Each structure stands twice: as C-alpha cells, then as structure tokens.
Amino acid sequence: MQIDIHNLNFSYGHRQVLADLSLTVKPGDYVVIQGKNGSGKSTLAKCLLGFNPVKSGMIFYNHEDINTFSDWTQFGYVPQEFEDFNYEFPVTVDELLTFSSIKNINQSRRLKLLDQIGILDLVNENINNLSGGQLQRVFIVRAMLNDPDVLILDEPAASIDRMNINFFYKAVNQLNLEGITVILITHNESLNHLNYSHVLNLGTDLSYTYQTRESCEIGGHDQ
Ligand SMILES: Nc1ncnc2c1ncn2[C@@H]1O[C@H](COP(=O)(O)OP(=O)(O)OP(=O)(O)O)[C@@H](O)[C@H]1O
Ligand SMILES: [Mg+2]
User: How far is it, in rounded angstroms, from Cα 33 to Cα 155?
Assistant: First the structure.
C-alpha cells in the first residue's frame, strides 16, 4: 500500500500538533517515527487510521482519499494506550483473537504466537482482567494474525519484557521482508536490530525531518 501525506495539519482545539507534513511511504517501507513526548507521534498514527479526522491537508492510500477509504482491514494497529479499553462482552483472549481474525487462522499458529510473545498462560483469561502490557501483547498477536498490508505499532516495546522483545522485532522484520509496510513509533532506542528503511523525526516545535536509513547513518557520523 502506498501512503501519500500532503501538507497535513492537525490540531486539538487550539493546540496545533502537526504542521504541513508531507511524505510518501512506498509499499514495503519500514518507517520508524521518533520524537520527544508530545511531538505528535500517536496523533499522526491516529490520523493515518482515521481516528483523528483529517481536515487540513490530505492522505491517500493507493491514491484513494482517506475520507472515502473504507478497507480498514488492510491495517493492523497496536495502540499505545489501553486505559480506556473495556470490552463489552466477557471474552477470553482466545475468543477475541478468533473473532477478530479476518482470515481463518488455525489454532496452532495462534497459540504459537501467544507463546512466543510470552502470554500463552493467558489464553483463557477474560480480556477485561489483563494489565495494559498484557493487553498490548494480545493486540500485537491480533495485528500479526490478520496479515495486514500496513502494520502501525505505537511504542510496542514499552510493555514487552526484554526476553520477548527480540522475538517481537524479528517477527516484525520478517513481516516487512514479506512485503508488509511497517510504521513503528519508538523513542530513545537503538534501531540497529530493526529492518527500517526511513526515519520520520517529529520535533516539539512542529518541525520534522524524513530521511532514508542511509542518509540518517551518514548524518549520524557527522554529529
Ligand atoms: N485527545 C487529545 N486531546 C487534546 N490534546 C491531545 C490529545 N491527544 C494528544 N494531545 C496533545 O497533543 C500533543 C501530541 O500528543 P501525542 O500523544 O501525539 O504525542 P506523542 O509524540 O505520541 O507523545 P508520547 O511520546 O508521550 O507518546 C501533546 O501535546 C498532547 O498533550
Ligand atoms: Mg504517543
């Protein structure tokens, strides 16, 4: 999926968070979004997912305007915040993953992913009883099971323990090698083990830079 962002502005009331942001993400790119707290990383993810309506500027998916785009099953999303999460029905982790799989995924693949990400013991737990970090890992499994075209991950490493983080990044690299576009929000972290192709750096002063991996690495040596 090609993503074109043209002159995107976004404000919450009078607080402007994104200003005149333009970039293209080509199919199969792996974009890391970095920036300090409050620089607008999660806001941009929510714009891309249609949760924050775009009123100024444009976003296109394969040349289709986001305002008419409807095939959201092409997106896998792991949000940063789960505090407001309260599922209406008392479903278990396994049930949630089964209902929300668009494709018919066999149970052994589901259980294997749960195991690799360290939450197999929660498979029959009611999802309303999970901690934020546990729930985030369930959403990571869910996003991976659906074979999305674009995977948007908002600070997934924050709640995964060290033992499972390498598995997680390897799995994301593998999905990217298979052609999935990855948009990963992260801060203060070494990117060496990631397969990324581009870095979008958001400033808290509404500025931004968008660079390829090669130009970041050259720039990095100059500092
Ligand atoms: N729903 C909202 N209503 C009003 N202001 C908001 C809302 N969500 C975010 N903001 C403000 O917008 C700015 C950007 O927030 P955002 O969550 O996008 O930052 P972030 O880069 O993801 O930060 P962090 O690294 O802390 O996750 C912040 O100043 C924040 O206070
Ligand atoms: Mg955020």
Answer: 10
